[in-house]
Write a structure and sequence with these properties.
Blueprint: E1 10-14, H1 19-30, E2 36-39, H2 44-53, E3 60-63, E4 66-69, H3 73-80, H4 91-111, E5 120-122, E6 125-128, H5 129-148, H6 156-161, H7 170-189, E7 199-202, E8 205-208, H8 209-233
Parallel strand pairs: 1-2
Antiparallel strand pairs: 1-3, 3-4, 5-6, 7-8
């Protein structure tokens, strides 16, 4: 597609509460690049523009007439013509960290009184705390389902973002969380990490397994950090040690 004259060379298409969107915007900002910020919840023209370009969803970067998904910042850096200078943690470290973060997130979720689960997690997006809780565990669930071969790459986006219909009460929420945490732990104990392929097909393309593990870990970490902060604002103690965030390419900010 051809972008009309007068617009910035770079555009970032995003939605509030999207961790990849926030990281993408920060990545561009940190390099001092001028860009057009397009909130897809407010800009129907931007949604249509992405559809014409063959994209759905958020965390998309445009430079000139070229588009790339923001989930892989190496690809973003290549399109922008900048260096990333990032060293990824070892796969074994990422998997261990991911499990620790999930256990901490479970503790945060267990603290929430049931009567706050319907409150919005962030004012500018219609996502209740309950859905943010389930989303934290949808991330490892989609990973495990890809490993098991039960989730096609083109179904991953819907699986990651959709509310969970059978989760209404706190007991149902904890049952959902506990089932996924148990599966993740079993996968590790049974040596599943050693059997991972070198590359994995995702909805944003075929990726090196280290990139998939890193994104899954920091994606979980970012949303768990949001939950931990919400709970702290309601009077809880913080549950997630800051050390669990070290070495992960998380956004600097909590919200987009």
């Amino acid at each position: 597609m051809t972008v009309e004259a007068g617009r910035p060379e770079i555009s970032v298409y995003w939605v509030p509460g999207c961790s990849s969107c926030l990281k993408l915007k920060e990545f561009v900002e940190e390099r001092g690049l001028v860009f057009e910020s397009l909130n897809l919840l407010e800009r129907e023209d931007a949604v249509q523009e992405l559809e014409v370009a063959g994209f759905r969803g958020a965390a998309i970067l445009r430079k000139g007439d070229a588009f790339v998904r923001g989930q892989n910042l190496d690809e973003v850096a290549a399109l922008l013509g900048v260096d990333r200078h990032h060293r990824r943690l070892a796969n074994s470290v990422l998997v261990e960290r991911w499990e620790e973060l999930l256990a901490c997130a479970r503790a945060v979720i267990a603290w929430f009184p049931e009567d706050v689960l319907d409150r919005r997690a962030v004012l500018v997006r219609d996502r209740p705390i309950r859905d943010l809780c389930t989303h934290v565990f949808q991330v490892p669930d989609t990973f495990l389902r890809r490993v098991e071969g039960s989730l096609a790459a083109d179904g991953e986006r819907a699986a990651l973002g959709a509310p969970v219909d059978h989760v209404e009460t706190k007991d149902e929420l904890l049952a959902f969380v506990d089932a996924i945490l148990a599966r993740f732990r079993s996968w590790r104990v049974e040596g599943g990490e050693a059997e991972l392929p070198e590359r994995m097909l995702t909805y944003y393309g075929e990726q090196p397994i280290g990139q998939v593990l890193e994104r899954g870990t920091w994606h979980t970490a970012q949303h768990a950090r949001q939950l931990d902060t919400i709970a702290a604002g309601l009077g809880a103690e913080f549950q997630i040690p800051l050390s669990l965030y070290e070495g992960l390419p998380m956004p600097g900010r909590l919200w987009a």
